[in-house]
Amino acid sequence: MSSRVLASYRNLLRASRVAFNKDLPTLAAARMQIQQGFKNEKDATLTEAELNERLTYANDISTILRRNIVQGARDDEAQHDRYSKSDPTITVHFIR
């Protein structure tokens, strides 16, 4: 496995951990999906352009996981919802 592929794989795993750190079932499912996706492509013979396209796709998914995931939890005792996001620099607006 090339160092670029390994770096992309590890980047996806880190991004999934950041996005789903408090949601263990979703984290496990995301990690399984990442592992399966890379295993399916393990023996593929790709041109340099195809490899670059797939690595760009994986890195784009990492960015989406880090920036666009907002998770919510209902706190029934306090009668409110709690939300957490993986990127503190992004503002989230909720409309009820």
From TrEMBL:
GO molecular function term, any single one: protein folding chaperone
This protein's record includes keyword Chaperone: yes
UniProt keyword annotations, A-Z: Chaperone, Mitochondrion, Transit peptide
Major localization class: mitochondrion
Gene Ontology biological process terms, A to Z: mitochondrial respiratory chain complex III assembly
Domain of life: Eukaryota
Cellular-component GO terms for this entry: mitochondrial matrix
Protein's cellular compartments: Mitochondrion matrix
Function statement: Assembly factor required for Rieske Fe-S protein RIP1 incorporation into the cytochrome b-c1 (CIII) complex. Functions as a chaperone, binding to this subunit within the mitochondrial matrix and stabilizing it prior to its translocation and insertion into the late CIII dimeric intermediate within the mitochondrial inner membrane. Modulates the mitochondrial matrix zinc pool.
Protein family membership: Belongs to the complex I LYR family. MZM1 subfamily.
Subunit structure: Interacts with RIP1.
Name this protein carries in UniProt: Mitochondrial zinc maintenance protein 1, mitochondrial
Organism: Trichomonascus ciferrii
